[in-house]
Amino acid sequence: MAMNSVFRVLTAVLLLVLLPAAQTVAQTVLIPLPPQVAGSSYILMDPLSGQILMDENSNERLPPASLTKMMTAYIVERELDEGRISMSDMVPISVNAWRTEGSRTFVQEGTQVSVEDLLKGVIIQSGNDASVALAEFIAGSEGAFVDIMNQQAQLLGMNDTHFQNATGLPAPDHFSTAHDLALLAKAIINDFPENYPLYAEKHFTYNNIRQPNRNSLLWRDESVDGLKTGHTEEAGYCLVASAKRNDTRLIAVVMGTDSTGARAQEVQKMLNYGFRYYQSETLFSAGQELIEARIWGGRDDQLSVGVTRDVNVTIPRGSRDSLESTVDLDSVIKAPIKVGDELGRVQVKLGDEVIVDQPVLALTDVPEGGLFKRLWDAIKLFFIQLF
Question: Catalytic site residue 141?
């Protein structure tokens, strides 16, 4: 891509007005090595930027136990969002759902239970019976629902996940990874925020039986607001948790710990590390103009250039003022231009590390000007390039 140095300097100066001015000497932020975590697999992710702050064996395929129910709940929430079901819909409880072993909401065969109560049973009580009842209601059978689960996993980029049931009960070829479960948690939080408060509820009573949420961090850390626990003999004790402090949210996943206390302790350790040393920043917002560029032969002389998606980063805490940014534009931009046309790149550096390098796009359409306008601009451009 040909670059014009005048354009480059101009855009860099203007862009730096949008960010805090860079210090002459970049701050040195000291960050220790991540803590040791007693689990077979774990990951700490910033869902805003997608950056992984620490991980170990996070792509290892392991039995997810009741973490599976995150996908069951996600699909129910998607059906609610798209208007195909409602919270007040009554779900008939089959013998199959009623007889499902393991943790239960204690629904009764032959009765009808609202989608809302069953969803709470899945999320708060980890009810296997509630999971099967919802699966049958949405897809006709648990097997058909599992097909939807696996299709949804692929759509979310969970490439190392395969489900065999809606509950997480042990089954051959039923597996996921810490990384994939972090992606699923991110989708739950971002895609259906109106339902996310359910994951923070500490108790749910159904059929006169009050059961606590098994995520003990909800009692120990007020910044934690979800998501799900899991346990089987094969999987060990697992936990996916998310917390938000100030403007930073983190997701922590640990699999294969040896007790309920251990899974909470290890996730707390990960969250404390992440919040202590890192922060989330939205550098540019979707639709934000970074600069006006000169356009030749167009109906207008100026073109709005920027980004069409939020640009989010995770940086060491206290290092924002050390960010340096530049925009490089094509040396000559000629009409016609359509919204979304790529016109250059924006780059953000922290010290010597490039943390953002992505296209900048046209934010407005600029059609060709009239014949006289095109000829006049061509003459001006010829002399500018000549000298």
Answer: no
The model's confidence at residue 16, banded by pLDDT at 50, 70 and 90, is very low
Lowest mean pLDDT among 5-14, 98-107, 160-169: 5-14
- Of 126, 176, 216, 280, catalytic: 126
Does 223 qualify as catalytic in the annotation?
no
Question: If you average pLDDT over residues 79-96, what whole number do you get?
Answer: 98
Q: Is 69 a catalytic residue?
A: yes
Mean per-residue pLDDT for 208-213?
97
Q: Which one is catalytic: 40, 41, 66, 304?
A: 66
Backbone angles phi, psi at 272, to 5 degrees: -60, -40
Q: Which of 40, 58, 69, 186 is catalytic?
A: 69
